[in-house]
């Protein structure tokens, strides 16, 4: 008598429990091996190999030319007059030079690896990495084999053109750094003097309302500008002057304020004023921790201790924040005793 098999029962029979989980029985997959090697045209035709080599070093020399052009374009199309046409031409031609330099070196490297380097498939077994002599000898042998397969040591035109292209590709970026500084301006002179003068009142930023000493409570912090700055227009250099003169004003308990002997007259009843421009790269130091009396630069996390002359206690900044000497006038307003006694802003080569 024929017996019908339940399909569900048959499926359940093909599963076996393993560690509490049901797994299906399957046949192991055999390793199919590597596909048949197909030779490239450059492997079969010496003339094609020579053309590929010539193409690679021509691309590298094109990259070299692009880098040189980017530097030349930076000088041929100056942006000192700040006109839109000058800025447009400078960005266009410098950008084209850098694009050619990077694109040619990238295409050349890819064509080198695809058409010239060894194209043989191989299997590299995994093994434990150890610092034995045999391991070091094997590493040397691997580098020697890579050099032989790539032809780096034998193909002088490719090697030399690659070195020239890579070195030259860095030069446009270095050249452009010059544009970060004002042209024909002495940085020492530019940063050594700000708007602050003797008797000039400290005012709220940006309203320009003068600040009285009685308004500054313990633990408070005020963003401050010189009072006359609020009357300047952008055409008169408002931003340039503000970038150098911005100040943070804070009041600390007298028993927590540690001042150098030659600066004890620079504060008033625990009220101190420090430049807001970080001495690392010039970011605005805008965060004040009331309990610790620390100022924090949000750009690179430099920290300054206000209770100890704004000394650097953390981060990449190399110098304390410059202090603005202050006093109080007959009407109770906080005024500057003088300008800063040192250049504000980040460190630079010419700085003393």
Structure description:
This protein has 8 helices and 12 strands. It has 2 domains: 41-119 and 138-180; 188-336, Rieske [2Fe-2S] iron-sulphur domain (Rieske Iron-sulfur Protein). The radius of gyration is 35 Å and the shape is elongated. The protein is an alpha+beta fold and 352 residues long. Mean pLDDT is 85; it is low at 10-15. GO terms for molecular function: 2 iron, 2 sulfur cluster binding; metal ion binding; monooxygenase activity; oxidoreductase activity, acting on paired donors, with incorporation or reduction of molecular oxygen.
Task: Please outline the helices and strands.
Blueprint: H1 7-13, E1 15-18, E2 21-24, H2 41-44, H3 46-76, H4 84-115, H5 133-150, H6 156-176, H7 187-192, E3 202-204, E4 221-226, H8 238-245, E5 247-251, E6 271-275, E7 287-289, E8 294-296, E9 303-305, E10 311-314, E11 326-328, E12 334-336
Antiparallel strand pairs: 1-2, 3-4, 4-5, 5-6, 7-8, 8-9, 9-10, 11-12
């Amino acid at each position: 008598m024929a017996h019908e098999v339940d399909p569900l029962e048959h499926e359940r029979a093909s599963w076996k429990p393993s560690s509490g989980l049901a797994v299906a029985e399957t046949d192991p997959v055999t390793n199919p091996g590597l596909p048949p090697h197909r030779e490239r045209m450059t492997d079969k035709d010496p003339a094609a190999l020579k053309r590929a080599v010539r193409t690679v070093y021509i691309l590298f020399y094109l990259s070299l030319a692009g880098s040189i052009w980017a530097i030349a374009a930076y000088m041929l199309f100056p942006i000192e007059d700040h006109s839109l046409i000058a800025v447009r031409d400078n960005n266009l031609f410098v950008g084209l030079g850098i694009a050619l330099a990077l694109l040619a070196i990238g295409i050349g490297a890819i064509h080198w690896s695809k058409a010239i380097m060894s194209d043989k498939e191989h299997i590299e077994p995994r093994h434990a990495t150890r610092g034995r002599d045999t391991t070091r000898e094997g590493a040397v042998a691997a580098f020697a084999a890579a050099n032989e397969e790539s032809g780096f040591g034998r193909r002088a035109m490719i090697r030399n053109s690659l070195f020239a292209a890579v070195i030259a590709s860095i030069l446009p970026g270095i050249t452009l750094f010059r544009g970060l500084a004002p042209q024909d301006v002495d940085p020492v002179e530019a940063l050594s003097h700000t708007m602050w003068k003797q008797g000039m009142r400290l005012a709220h930023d940006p309203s320009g309302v003068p600040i009285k000493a009685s308004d500054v409570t313990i633990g408070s912090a005020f963003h401050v500008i010189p009072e006359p700055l609020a009357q300047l227009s952008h055409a008169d250099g408002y931003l340039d002057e503000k970038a150098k003169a911005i100040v943070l004003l804070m009041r600390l308990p007298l028993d927590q304020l540690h001042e150098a002997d030659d600066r004890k007259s620079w504060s008033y009843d625990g009220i101190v004023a420090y430049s807001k421009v970080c001495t690392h790269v010039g970011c605005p130091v805008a965060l004040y921790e009331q309990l610790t009396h620390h100022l924090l630069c949000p750009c690179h996390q430099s920290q300054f201790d206000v209770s100890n002359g704004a000394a650097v206690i953390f981060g990449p900044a190399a110098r304390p924040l410059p202090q603005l000497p202050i006093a109080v006038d007959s009407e109770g307003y906080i005024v500057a005793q003088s300008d800063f006694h040192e250049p504000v802003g980040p460190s630079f080569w010419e700085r003393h």
